Hints:
This protein is α/β, with parallel strands linked by helices and 446 residues long. The chain is 49% helix and 9% strand. It has an 8-stranded parallel β-sheet with strand order 1-2-3-4-5-6-7-8, sandwiched between helices. Mean pLDDT is 93; it is low at 5-24.
Amino acid sequence: xxxxxxxxxxxxxxxxxxxxxxxxxxxxxxxxxxxxxxxxxxxxxxxxxxxxxxxxxxxxxxxxxxxxxxxxxxxxxxxxxxxxxxxxxxxxxxxxxxxxxxxxxxxxxxxxxxxxxxxxxxxxxxxxxxxxxxxxxxxxxxxxxxxxxxxxxxxxxxxxxxxxxxxxxxxxxxxxxxxxxxxxxxxxxxxxxxxxxxxxxxxxxxxxxxxxxxxxxxxxxxxxxxxxxxxxxxxxxxxxxxxxxxxxxxxxxxxxxxxxxxxxxxxxxxxxxxxxxxxxxxxxxxxxxxxxxxxxxxxxxxxxxxxxxxxxxxxxxxxxxxxxxxxxxxxxxxxxxxxxxxxxxxxxxxxxxxxxxxxxxxxxxxxxxxxxxxxxxxxxxxxxxxxxxxxxxxxxxxxxxxxxxxxxxxxxxxxxxxxxxxxxxxxxxxxxxxxxxxxxxxxxxx
Length: 446
């Protein structure tokens, strides 16, 4: 056959192969979907609400930085309260019979939810996990509460407040979002001081580290914390660097009783305290969770949450006994996250991506990670409440459903490309949804 006839034939074959592969990966393998649906997952990141009886004060400890502190914010499409995907959640969780969100139908839904909450009482949070097929949910909260009981719920505490013991007035002036968020951290630091019997900051940095920072971490460990959480990207860039103790001591001593440090000096102190928290967390067996995603807020600095900014932390030999988890997988910097989880003590979950993007795009993120470091990937929902209509179980449902769909799509593509067998696909699915977390946190596996 001459080349003039061969080239068109080869192009035809290539196009047919491409079309075949595209079609094969458009729909997930049905057997794989069914098997993935049965896996009892471990949710690495969520904000569930504690049980609140009628007439009691609403739960306000589900986050150290509640978003209402910065006023109304635009939400991505899938988190809009009018997203019809939530109808699917209402059907599966509460037996909703309709295809719409009409006012009358939603009013009936709320009555159903209120009746169910009254029937379940303090067991409602556990009931929600049962409906979702989630074995254990890591609750990111200031403190736990009624209904959020071990082993179904495990505590992840917030430690950002410990980073900011000095005046934060300059930061508040520099960014409207900071102006909304910093007061919450200042209140939490006062709470931590009170819990260790102090009314004011110790005079020296060494005393602050011992009597406040380490004492707080040890108390949270005793109270059941499994990890600590930094939301620092909402308050500064994640560029935590090595800082020497002499400079940190000087800065703390000069401003602990008043005055305003320069931004450079304050950063040096924050960097040093971060290292201390990470080091002590490793000693105590607490994983360190770090928020890294295209966060909300009109003045959020997306570039400040790029996981690459943490490279010096991840490369620090003194912190190799501390396990770090990049929460939300650094989206949209997911390729950078793939590079960072090459470090022996760095992991990533894909919570938040589960409702920011649709399963197709999420499957591409997961496939990239799965093909490199499958033992470093953790499932998470980032479930939180938008109010009585779209509460944390509905957001958990959306994330849980999207995550399993995306995982099935990614693994189907890998199977179709002969990278893995069906048996290996099922093993990977189980690792992502639960086994990696069991190993990392030394959980009792079922």
